[in-house]
Amino acid sequence: MTIQEIQDEIVEEFNLFEDWMQRYEYMIELGKSLPLIAPEFKTDDNIIKGCQSKVWVHAELKDNQLLFSADSDAIITKGIIAILIRAFSNQHPKDILDADTNFIDQIGLKEHLSPTRANGLVSMIKQIKLYAIAFQTQLN
Amino acid sequence: MTYKGIDSKKVRADFPILSREVNGQPLVYFDNAATSQTPQQVIDIIVDYYSRYNANIHRGVHRLSQEATDAYEIARQTIQTHFNAAKAHEIILTSGTTHAINIVASGYAALLKEGDELVVSAMEHHSNIVPWQMLCEKTGAQLKVIPMTQLGTLDMDAYYALLNKNTKLVFVNHVSNALGTVNPIEEIITKAHAVGAKVLVDGAQAAPHIKADVQALDIDFYVTSAHKLCGPTGVGMLYGKQDLLNALPPYQGGGEMIAEVTFAKTTYADLPHKFEAGTPNIAGGIAFGAALDYMNEIGFEAIAAFENELLVYATNELEQVEGVQIYGQAPEKTAVLSFNVKGIHPYDLGSILDQMGIAVRTGHHCAQPIMDFYQIPGTVRASFSFYNTKEEIDRMLVALKRAISMLQ
User: Fold this and answer.
1) Active site residues of B
2) Annotated active-site positions of A, please?
3) b/e per residue A113-129 (b: at least 16 CB within 10 A)
4) Is the pLDDT of residue A115 over 60?
5) Whether the predicted pLDDT of A103 surpasses 90
6) I need a labelling partner for B200 at 20 to 30 A (CA). Which of A20, A131, B177, B326 fits?
7) What's the predicted TM-score (pTM) here?
8) Cβ(B396)–Cβ(B205) under 8 Å?
9) Is the pLDDT at A34 greater than 60, yes or no?
10) What is the pLDDT, as a whole number, of residue B242?
């Protein structure tokens, strides 16, 4: 699936929720269930320090596709990370570079990406794009 | 109904923002330690300024400029009277507390030498740490830290042991923003003065609750921000004893702060203008005065008594909630409740409370050393004001329990 197709799918799923409670319960569920990052990658080098919660991101290239793993100390942040990984992992670096992140607004989680939250998520998206640039350069 | 001297219904009607909704629910605003809300009386003053007499101050000979200058200087006198400063020119209007601290920290660079010592408390806001670290880097002076106890109070014996003839400055907050602890500034000042050191009191968190008399307490420098006191953002004050302010070099060069300028030499204006370079936040300064008038009309004793009642009620109720750990249990506190729930990140709690219309602060509250002391990433902080109610605290508790059941 392309990044756009995955994002459309996520938006569709979120449209089924009737209120914020269901949205948040789903994200908490995602956050709790996913083993997001191997312990050896949960290092200080991979940490993105936000004012509110910490985020770790690791990336590696396999068969021309970027694989992301990540984690956070806050469960809701972790849930959003799970959504981001679903959208951007296992994709070609160029496609990641070209993709937009509007779907976050559409699923009603915009406030978590606001710079005022300073929760590391904005930096995480930036980091995903930076990894994509770095690996794209390698591929070229 | 009036309770502890506060008529909640009447007071709340003064604050238009309190009637808005957030996420479909009536707003419960418990982030007062970050910024207080603004009553209509103060909003009106700002609107009146821009509608009727907006002009630059201290230079125009025209009518509007005179009116604006008069209003600005009356505000300075209101601030002077409120804090009982001996002279109006000892009140420097700044952009806020941070600016005020930087004026003093930057000025002391010219007065300190290697081997001098500065004493800071372990429970300061970053704005009362970083400028002094920069000062130490410039001068070779050393920064000593008064440790804190588990209860969130200062270890006063350790403080006395830090003081010696090399101590030049002590800076401490009157009230901790992260914990609400009221620090014993009178004692801190007396002991500092005994070794010849000067004291800067950061009043940003105290000023909304406690009226500090700078002369009675013999405070050398006192700083605070208007936006914690029902005033607007972008304006605050530095109080300094006249001799001490005169001894400091200017912080910024520019217009307004000069007596005479030639390319050979510039002489600086007298206080307070020496520290007020450039066009100030005129509407803000005038509104600062109006905000103090508003709060004095209600009365600081009534405000403190009412807020304490809210604090005691919320503390007792919160302690009943399983897994709650409250940080900052000093015997004397302002209405700040900093807490965590076992196994839950404060960001998660704050996010869900926000969904239910409850505004609290989460994070390290710009006081990372305190969080390091307790070895936590941050806390949830509910801070109350005289316009809050017990019903709002009940709503927060219901929301909190719901959040906990979702997150656990």
Assistant:
1) 366
2) 51
3) beeebebbbbbbbebbb
4) no
5) no
6) B326
7) 0.92
8) no
9) yes
10) 98
Q: Cβ–Cβ of B345/A73 closer than 8 Å?
A: yes
Q: Which of chain A's residues have a Cβ under 8 Å away from the Cβ of B377?
A: 53-54, 73
Q: Which domain holds residue A84?
A: 3-139
Using CA atoms, how far apart are residues B301 and B298, in angstroms rounded to an integer? 9
Neighbours of B138 (CB within 10 A): 14
- Residue B20 confidence (pLDDT): 96
Res. A22: pLDDT tops 80:
yes
Chain A residues at the B interface, defined by Cβ less than 8 Å, are 20-21, 24-25, 28, 51-54, 73-77, 111-112, 118-119
Question: What are the residue ranges in chain B where pLDDT is below 50?
Answer: none
Nearest Cα to Cα of residue B303 among B206, B235, B393, B395: B206
B362 closest CB neighbour out of A21, A52, A111? A52
pLDDT at B285 (0 to 100): 98
The pLDDT of residue A39 is 85
Name, in order, each residue with C-beta under 8 angstroms of B35's C-beta and a sequence gap of 6 or more.
B227, B228, B233
Domain boundaries, chain B: 2-30+299-407, 43-297
State how many domains chain A has. Answer: 1
> CB–CB of A53 and B345 under 8 A?
yes
Q: Which residues of A touch B398 (CB under 8 A)?
A: none
What count of CB pairs under 8 Å joins A to B? 45
Which CATH number covers residue A103? 3.90.1010.10
**What pLDDT is attached to residue A47?**
83
The shortest CB-CB distance from B347 to any of A21, A28, A52 is to A52
Asked whether the beta carbons of residue B345 and residue A51 sit closer than 8 angstroms, the reply is no
Helix (H/G/I), strand (E/B), else coil: B257: coil
> Token pair for residue B73?
């200087």
Indicate yes or no: CB of A28 within 8 angstroms of CB of B406.
Answer: yes
Instruction: A99-105: list long-range contacts, CB under 8 Å, 24+ apart.
Output: A99/A3, A99/A4, A99/A7, A101/A125, A103/A7, A103/A8, A103/A10, A103/A11, A104/A80
Q: What is the pLDDT of residue A101?
A: 81
Neighbours of A101 (CB within 10 A): 16
Instruction: Please report the ipTM that was assigned to this predicted complex.
Output: 0.87
One CATH from 3.20.170.30, 3.40.640.10, 3.40.50.300, 3.30.70.3040 for B43-297: 3.40.640.10
Res B60: pLDDT:
79
CATH 3.40.630.30 fits B2-30+299-407, yes or no: no
Q: What is the mean pLDDT of chain A?
A: 86
Which among B23, B351, B377 is the nearest to A73, CB-wise? B377
Residues of B in contact with A21 (CB under 8 A): 355, 406
Quote the longest CA-to-CA distance of chain A. Answer: 46
Q: Are residues A52 and B378, on separate chains, in Cβ contact within 8 Å? A: yes
Q: Which of chain B's residues have a Cβ under 8 Å away from the Cβ of A78? A: none
Inter-chain touch A119–B347, beta carbons under 8 Å: yes
B347 and A74 in contact by Cβ < 8 A?
Answer: yes
